[in-house]
């Protein structure tokens, strides 16, 4: 769980590569692309351009390199040739990458073309909520501080926080201890120590926080059919605060 300086250097390298994947996606016109086409493009980029491994492929029997979650899909959307991204959609792309034995994990919700004001607001608040959580990370803080900051911001804006899925420790394995909840009470939960690495990845819904899984065994959707958004970064606890290992060009902490 706590990484050495050498291990952190390797995680930092994986994080930089994963940031490049999203920077590549930022240049694309997603409207009209199927989620399977996006998946295949990302796989080629990771393996050919970055000489790395898409860590999600084969994990838990999953056959693809990313999750593609459109509109009311909360998480774990399965790429498909039939799912074509349309103008007005919001789509979360959740991608993992392994290089030299260490894994980075990140996601971003893209607004495609002309998106409704309600969708834009949800996406903005979800991203803000992630940063509210990240800014709580420092030695001596507790995981409850992270979750409480996220939940407070979401609720203040009239949204709900999905409780069925959470962030997680990460390193040599995609999912390590601890679980990182996106709700909670300040001053509770596991104590943060220098060298810990984990993801913060809130899923924020317009309506109810209740979700259900489709018959494919993967795709998680809002129970009421309203929109959901998500953002995710892999972070490390430093001596003085936090380092975002998957930070993309142009992003600022907070």
Automatic annotation (TrEMBL):
Cofactor names: Co(2+); Zn(2+); Mn(2+); Fe(2+)
PROSITE patterns tied to this protein: MAP_1
Cofactor annotation comment: Binds 2 divalent metal cations per subunit. Has a high-affinity and a low affinity metal-binding site. The true nature of the physiological cofactor is under debate. The enzyme is active with cobalt, zinc, manganese or divalent iron ions. Most likely, methionine aminopeptidases function as mononuclear Fe(2+)-metalloproteases under physiological conditions, and the catalytically relevant metal-binding site has been assigned to the histidine-containing high-affinity site.
Positions of the Peptidase M24 domain: 10-238
Identification of the protein by name: Methionine aminopeptidase
EC number annotated for this UniProt entry: 3.4.11.18
Job of this protein: Removes the N-terminal methionine from nascent proteins. The N-terminal methionine is often cleaved when the second residue in the primary sequence is small and uncharged (Met-Ala-, Cys, Gly, Pro, Ser, Thr, or Val). Requires deformylation of the N(alpha)-formylated initiator methionine before it can be hydrolyzed.
Domain of life: Bacteria
GO BP terms in the entry: proteolysis
UniProt-recorded Gene Ontology molecular function terms: initiator methionyl aminopeptidase activity; metal ion binding; metalloaminopeptidase activity
Binding residues annotated for a divalent metal cation 1, in chain numbering: 94, 105, 232
Annotated gene: map
Keyword Hydrolase: yes
Enzyme class: hydrolase
CDD domains: MetAP1
Binding site for substrate: 76, 175
PANTHER family, per database record: METHIONINE AMINOPEPTIDASE
Annotated Gene Ontology cellular component terms: cytosol
Organism: Sphingomonas sanguinis
Keywords: Aminopeptidase, Hydrolase, Metal-binding, Protease
